[in-house]
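Weekly puzzle thread! Below is a chain. First person to post its structure in token form gets bragging rights.
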Amino acid sequence: MQTNLSTEFKATEEGKTVDRILRSCVHCGFCTATCPTYQVLGNELDSPRGRIYLIKQMFEKNEVSQATLQHLDRCLTCRSCETTCPSGVEYHTLLDIGKQHAIRTVKRPLAGKLFRKAIVSTLENPKRFKILYQIGQQFRLLLPPSIKKNIRPKSMPKIWPDQNHSRKVILFEGCVQPTLTPEVNDTIANLLNKLEIQVIRLPEMGCCGAMHHHTDAPDLALQRIKANIDAWWPHINRVEAIITSASGCGVFIKDYEQLLSGEPEYLDKAKLLEEKQKDIAELLADEDLSTINSPYQGKTIRFHPPCTLQHGQKINGVVEKILGKLNLTVTLPEDSHLCCGSAGTYSILQKTLSTALKERKTNALMSNDPDLIVTANIGCQLQLQSSCTIPVKHWVELLSD
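Winning reply:
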């Protein structure tokens, strides 16, 4: 793609990145075939190729409007287009730069700004979110059905093992997962203990920064990133990995180095930590699981691979292989490459589109009546649970005996 960026902008680091990515696009349109929003809306401007043109116009002709921002906002950042692209276009990086420029140029309405801040301030703080959720549990029976179905009754937490092992990992617990699906991290802690791997919990860890980054607050995202690095760094030489069970957190942590490119004090640390970060599937893939007796043997299991796992982290076939070792029958749904519509806060900010994608995914997952649906990300799990009549779990729960 030919570009005509201003000399001043091209001289900046951001300008060099934009120019390089734009020039790598060859207009082929392969991305439109795998873009979830284009599949629903059929509008070229709601496809990666269309959004690339909008970003090009922004930086060449300063053509940006609220409509431009709306088309960029509709992107799920699922990265399915990057998997499909034969030219290796770094679309998500270009989108980040373009979206921030659009926000600075046209500004969001005050109500939109406040709504985003309210969402993030509620979800990103594990302690605050837990208190609010417990209040909801107290009054669950009095709440309307639409809210009640998203609040689980109280349950007793499992005790985490405290054995000391020579092999150690840090478990990144996430923002909402410890409250909404505590059984996932509980299962991981007990499973790894059986494999003689000690799980280290660090209370000072917070949000990975993804929510801030995707809701117009990149500076706050950098603060969260640095705080996590500060929490991990004293332990870096005694752990073999930093484990994530939410693939959405995992893909963002693996981008820390890129996000900290302008922070020399943290850049080298981010490089090392990025090498240490692993999805739980990556860790378990090389472990001997012969002592694990899954209670789900004989069940038909449908696996929904999250976009952040298959397109973001490029971890494909690993979960299926692990479950296959346990003699579990696992199948993928039709169009397994397409997003379920969760995408972090997207399901709140783009509810209509998110619901349309959820319905498509739900129908595909429930076809042929599997006994169980599993996934690898808290956001996908909650999204699918809200509409599936079949139980939806995190796949690691199948390893709990």
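Puzzle host: Confirmed. Bonus trivia for everyone else. Residues 271 and 336 are 31 Å apart (CA to CA).
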